[in-house]
Design brief:
mainly alpha, two-stranded antiparallel ribbon, globular, 2 strands, Arc Repressor Mutant, subunit A, 6 helices
Amino acid sequence: MSDDTPSPLLEVALPALLRHARHTYGAAMRAALVARGYDDIPGNGLYVIGALALGEAPLSQIIRELRVSKQAAGQLVDALVLRGYLERQTDPDDRRRLTVTLTERGQAAADTQKAAREAIDAELLARMGAEKLLHAREVLAELIEIGRDQVPAD
């Protein structure tokens, strides 16, 4: 907030704050994608495209993190393949396996959503400062760790 008046949002339950904060990022990314002609990415598609762009996790882990059924995950990947964001290829090391990678269109969409995320990050940094932003990241990281400690692995 621009003045010293505490935000009424400070009284809102943390899960609700997290949901609405996530919406801020999602809405910015969706708007940027639509403006660039990527208006056909299905729900959860942003997560898959963004995670594949990072290249740090296999698709199976990304899908597990979505916490959707195998059928829903398969439909999501199928839709992203049909719409030109992902490409399936036979794994050269194991012909029984398929690998899924971003296409040129998928990488462009990933770059677009990354730029939108970075714009929100920059605005947040300008409003809150580096120290508070680091603290927020630490709190969120710890919240994730609590979840990992309490919830059995799939």
